[in-house]
Write a structure and sequence with these properties.
Helix content: 40-55%
Distance between the termini: 56 Å
Strand order of the largest sheet: 12-11-10-9-18-19
Largest sheet: 6 strands, mixed
Number of helices: 24
Structural class: alpha+beta
């Protein structure tokens, strides 16, 4: 087939899918946002608007050419996403602490409060801090004990501050980037209790409303927990009940939270589509039933529209009281579109509703694109909508052919299982990418737990809110708590089954991109060419399967090292201290919490690792790596090994024969080093290289010739 014929075929196919073009706007917008975050350095401020202007001009010129015009429109939308992400990054800019401060006195206003199982986390703004830290705009502190605080209160306390932590390894979770978009310049912990201070002045109307809602949310959390516990239920159930209403998951015990994840029930603790749809549906049925019971209203007024308006108001209140996390924003917009369609006598189109939701979230918070919450939430809903769109004719025939009351129950149970399977399949890749863990019995967990949430827990929550004006809401919270106790038992039982979880190693971002583009191609087009999306998804899976994890990891202090054994497991130089770093490395390796020590590997590693009190020699990929503990071993190790790692600063000339030399200065300047021992070469990637020259980068970029620590021998 010639190029002209192929071009004409693509143009005709694209023209035939014209009603689906709109659905691709979030994908194009997200592509521009992803491009911004993928750049190795911060782009010029003019680059996004310039590209946007050029693309709009191209779309206008080529508006009669379907393929070229559609491409220009997609580029223009991507340029808009790029520009929005760059603007958001600049708007969030705030000073960042460069080195630990030690203990000092911090004064500030309590902007946010997050309850935890053991204490609470607070964010302070309008700071008064001595020294270099005095430039900071916002800091996050951990208070080890529960202290009665309220948003907007001004306090003073002694605290130790430190910069937002760098990623544990190249490709690991980047808290420093998240902190940048929250304008957090430092994190730390309180030393001693806080003291209340006089309020500095009056707040503006918008800020007063925000603080008032935060205090209301905090008070409601405490009320729910107290109401549940008043019924004599075990500790922890009240925290789960509060998480379903106010999205405060911090007080949920880590063991219980992990059980929910391992049973495939973590979505129950995230206020998203299921919760919002249940609330909207229950309110819709209740209001319409009440109005229909009054004949003069039912016969003379549009009670369906009144009901939709009431349900919209209730779901808006749910959004506000939950703090509006990304899944709740998406769920509210989708439900809002459906309810507005009822009000305007329009038919709501599901794929269009999620398109509007995705556009709104990405324009308001473009940084959410690279987070697990956004990706998993939208993947689940896109999968469900596209799946049910494809299965609708067959499901309709099956439902119409049902006989007897039992067929409705069977259809409901089948719906739960089908929904769980589609959503679980759609989010599985993203779950593994972000958490390196997959729940194998999620179908069983959801089959048992979701009916309890829909028919017991959420109706009890609505009952509690209805009784709240009379001070009788405790009954509703206790009823809700009894249902949650059953779900907790289900989560614990399912997560304890043999093989309940599967740990998998990390994968490259390119695999995520290919899988996502293939999935969108499959879900958004309508004709048979949508099946080409399966090729993209397969390519993503293949790339993930072929990804080779690093053979060696060294932390910035040089105290913690890890090497890969012949069976693919990581062995650690230390099994104590550096807990978060160890856990992150093990999770990326697909080992869960299973740790192997250097001593175990040396004893069973068939000579791959040999250690003494001065250091270790590791052999892999045709290379010999010296992991030096004491500088006095450097001379001997340099003669034997082609790669040398020493945790203290050492002159490069001290080891001229080594092809690769990493010393304490390089580790301090560039963060965790990941090494791949390949035939003929050793490939190195550092946290500094992975983060790039971005405003949130934890390590400053080196000067042009500051490369001696990882170069080969100097001439």
């Amino acid at each position: 087939m010639g190029s002209n014929s192929l071009f004409n075929l693509m143009s005709r196919t694209l023209a035939g899918e014209r009603e689906r073009w709109f659905l691709w706007l979030p994908a194009a917008l997200g592509a521009g946002i992803a491009l911004y975050f993928a750049l190795p350095s911060e782009p010029p401020a003019w680059s996004g608007p310039a590209l946007l202007s050029a693309a709009i001009l191209g779309a206008l010129v080529a508006r009669r050419q379907v393929l070229i015009g559609a491409t220009a429109l997609a580029v223009a939308t991507a340029a808009l996403g790029f520009s929005v992400a760059a603007w958001r990054s600049a708007a969030a800019a705030a000073p960042v602490l460069q080195r630990p401060s030690g203990v000092l006195r911090v004064e500030g206003r309590v902007a946010e409060i997050e309850p935890l199982e053991n204490g609470q986390r607070i964010i302070l703004d309008r700071l008064v801090v001595p020294g270099e830290a005095g430039r900071l705009r916002r800091v996050r502190l951990h208070l080890p004990a529960e202290v009665e605080l309220r948003s907007g209160q001004r306090i003073g306390l002694f605290a130790a501050l430190m910069p937002p932590p760098a990623p544990a390894a190249p490709g690991a979770y980047d808290f420093a980037r998240q902190a940048w978009f929250r304008s957090l310049g430092a994190v730390g912990y309180a030393v001693g209790p806080p003291q209340p201070l006089p309020t500095a002045g009056e707040e503006g109307m918008v800020e007063s409303l925000r603080l008032g809602l935060a205090n209301l949310r905090h008070a409601l959390t405490a009320r729910i927990v107290a109401g549940v516990e008043a019924g004599g239920l075990p500790d922890g159930i009240g925290a789960v009940a509060a998480a379903l209403i106010t999205a405060e998951r911090g007080p949920v015990a880590p063991e219980l939270l992990q059980a929910y994840r391992d049973a495939g029930l973590a979505h129950i603790l995230v206020i998203a589509g299921m919760h919002m749809s249940m609330v909207a549906g229950l309110v819709f049925v209740a209001i319409r039933g009440a109005l229909a019971a009054i004949p003069p209203l039912a016969l003379n007024y549009p009670i369906k529209k009144w009901t939709a308006a009431g349900a919209l108001a209730i779901t808006l209140g749910y959004l506000v009281i939950s703090g509006a996390p990304v899944p709740t924003q998406r769920a509210f917009i989708m439900n809002g579109v459906v309810l507005l369609a009822v009000l305007l006598d329009r038919q709501a189109i599901s794929l269009r509703s999620i398109t509007w939701a995705a556009l709104a979230v990405l324009l308001l918070a473009p940084e959410s694109l690279i987070g697990a919450s956004f990706q998993m939430s939208f993947a689940a809903v896109y999968g469900l909508i596209a799946g049910y769109e494809a299965l609708a004719p067959a499901l309709g025939r099956w439902r119409r052919s049902g006989r007897g009351w039992w067929s409705h129950g069977l259809f409901y149970v089948g719906g739960i299982l089908l929904t769980t399977q589609i959503a679980g399949t759609a989010t599985a890749f993203y779950t593994v990418f972000h958490f390196n863990r997959y729940a194998t019995y999620s179908l069983l967990g959801n089959f048992l737990a979701v009916p309890l949430v829909g028919f017991w827990i959420m109706p009890a929550a609505l009952l509690a809110f209805c009784l709240m004006p009379f001070g009788l809401d405790g009954w509703g919270w206790q009823l809700m708590g009894w249902g949650i106790a059953q779900v907790n038992r289900i989560a614990s039982w399912v997560s304890s089954l043999p093989g309940a979880t599967l740990n998998l190693p990390s994968m490259p971002v390119a695999a995520l991109i290919l899988f996502t583009l293939g999935g969108l191609w499959l879900c958004l087009w309508k004709t048979r060419w949508r099946l080409f999306g399966l090729l993209g998804m397969a390519a993503g899976l293949l790339l993930a399967a072929l990804h080779q994890p690093p053979d060696l990891l060294v932390d910035p202090s040089g105290r913690l090292m890890a090497v890969r054994s012949a069976d693919g497991r990581l062995a650690l130089s230390r099994l104590e201290g550096e807990r978060s770093l160890r856990e992150s490395w093990l999770k990326q390796a697909g080992q869960g919490t299973e740790a192997v020590s250097f001593a175990e590997l040396a004893a069973n590693g068939a000579g791959a690792l040999r250690c003494d009190r001065l250091g270790c020699l590791y052999r892999g990929g045709g290379h010999l790596v010296a992991l030096v503990r004491r500088p006095e071993a450097l001379y001997e190790d340099c003669r034997a090994a082609d790669t040398v790692v020493v945790p203290v600063p050492v002159l490069r000339l001290a080891c001229p024969s080594a092809r690769l030399f990493v010393d304490g200065l390089a580790l301090k300047r560039r963060g965790t080093h990941a090494l791949w021992l390949e035939d003929g070469a050793v490939r190195v990637e550092t946290v500094q290289q992975w983060q790039g020259r971005r405003p949130w980068a934890s390590y400053k970029a080196p000067a042009a010739r500051d490369q001696t620590a990882t170069d080969g021998p100097e001439p």
